[in-house]
Description:
The protein is an alpha/beta fold. Helices cover about 35% and strands about 20% of the residues. The model has no long low-confidence stretch (mean pLDDT about 95).
Amino acid sequence: MPSLRQQFLRHVAQTSDMPLLLEIERAEGSFLFDASGKSYLDLIAGISVSVLGHRHPAVVEAVKMQADRYLHTLVYGEYVLSPQVELASLLASLLPDPLDTVYFTNSGSEATEGAMKLAKRFTGRAEIVACREAYHGSTQGAASLMSPTFFTQGYHPLLPGVRHINFNSEGDLEKISSKTACVVIETVQAEAGVRLPRNGFLKKLRQRCTETGTLLVLDEIQAGYGRTGTLWAFEQYGIVPDVLLLAKGMGGGMPIGAFVASQEAMRSLGHEPPLGHLTTFGGHPVCCAAALATLRFLTENGLVEKVREKEALFRQLLVHPAIREVRSAGLLMAVEVGGFQVLQKIILECAVNGVVTDWFLFNDRSLRIAPPLTISEEEIRLACGAVNLAIEKFGN
């Protein structure tokens, strides 16, 4: 009988030729446990997903309760389902005007796709502007926003009419014109290795979009849900987007995403033609119940308010001559250690030391740190000790 690992390699589609191959049997809090019982402190939270840690009791209870009531009923948008309605209402109450109408999806990629369609339909324009070294998803529309094309070149041609600007480049804002349907941009560039907006860039971008009648689509798929120290990262920069993209941490470990806009804009998807955007499983009742429990816990238990304190502790403890820079936006952090070969060795050594870390799509020199927001001071000290040991062994 083939082992589970052998069956994984034979029958589960692979995305690279070097998967980590950790055989996870259970997870709880900040930890994963493999088949041998070894524990791994999860410093990346499933890529910013498990904001409340693994199997948080509030999320598990919400999933169980909803599973006892009903699962899938009909394609999204037809029935009045309380988990969807309550979650949309809570989101609207926690967002500034005009962000009051939510379209639920299964993922961040699908949220991006929906926002792109919404912008084209609402403005009557076709051109889309995106930033270089940004990641908004891997479906063909979302992948069309990606530059450089290293990860997409095997699938061209993608969507036409996409122009690119550089993050934090005020001069590039002139490329946004009356032909531009929307600008899709991360509030904090995650896959570039945690690049923060500087010198009022987002305010200048907001102004340019307003001047040209262009929708500003902010991608907070990684930066949202408290990760940067406020519930929504854009709160720190004095702007409000026309469309907000959410996913990853939204479901507390369950798959769900959303794009949020004004009711006026969202109505454009419902006529000429009707059913302008459809999803069968988007807003699944069980996922919405989990997301509702996650958002309630985040906002009622002071977790977001503690993010900056935990960020400061990481920065205090991650000290080694081989560390070239630490960039952070709350608990979204990049630790620059050198080239990819060195980084790979450090990542693998961290796993040996019982800590899971990762790298970034457009920055292969930096270690990704994005733990559950529930991580404790003791766990931060444990994690930093393991990371520093790995850097001591392999850092240049």
